[in-house]
Amino acid sequence: MQVEGSDYRTVWMEEGTVCLIEQNLLPFEFRIFRAEDYRDTCMAIATMIVRGAGAIGATAGFAMAQAYLENGSDPAFVETARQAIKNTRPTAQNLFYAVERVYKAGKASVAQAVIEAQQIADEDVDACRRIGELGNTLIQDSCNIETHCNAGWLAFVDYGSALSPVYTAHRAGKQVFVYVDETRPRGQGARLTAWELENENVPHVIIPDNAGAHLMSQGKIDMMIVGSDRIAANGDVANKIGTLEKAIVAQHYGIPFYVAAPISTIDFTCPAGKHIPIEQRHMDEVLYQTGTNDQGRMEKVLVSSPGSEAINPAFDVTPAELVTAIITEKGIYKPHELATLE
Length: 342
Ligand code: MRU
Hints:
The chain is α/β, with parallel strands linked by helices and 342 residues long. It is built from ten helices and 18 strands.
């Protein structure tokens, strides 16, 4: 994707350094974070400098390659790194998929680990491009689409999953309008999805998380497309907290609810959504908000009653029966058809 006239991927590796678009600063500042070793890269995943399933996966693959580059001849070192990378965040399947692929490749040689990590990143780009082409076939002209969180190119290496069909449709000349859930508490919709859409000149508006049902009841939404962090073999879908409520309301109003995700997000070893680990994040993400003040400086401010505590589950699971179809790079499937893809 292009930012101010230059082509960018969300994550890439340059001579052993993992380069990441610093997503905690967006949309206020565009900066590249450089992770010099796998520990730096782990920190970047845990602190959400990089986030979104595909981007986390590619980054984790590069982190595993960094560990091989640093000390690939020491199995204990490699194993410590492998576990550290897997401990950064628990929900996105792509992270585990990528670490294991690069770990196995590195047993042949360090060079092979680097090649495999790059391959995973390139495959992510190809898969997301294809998801865009296939998903575009579901989008009618003059379509109003609601999306939750950010499953755009910032959440992958490029193109995105849920937003890729939107970009393809828009470039093909279709009129599309996107209702962007702000996605509390971290605001990935209001901050990242809105920034991406603005950057691509796609007409959109940010809506409060609790406005979706109202808009659906008024006939303003034609379809929902969301991404996913992990899909169980039975088609249950883990995605950013709040997705489940949207799916329930969409079914109530007869609005198609699509999930877009590459095959690397499907956990074929996980029989059902109730087994997907749900990340619990720090309560400060709920109690405080971060933004820029009038002087353009980033500030963190308390937006809750002092002394109150909060809980902060980062994901929820939408049962397969609420999902109209899953858009993958191999085709568009009913949730119960996924198991045949293994
Ligand atoms: O906590 P995040 O920002 O890493 O959450 C992941 C997500 O961006 C969403 O859940 C998204 O819809 C699916 S990942 C492409």
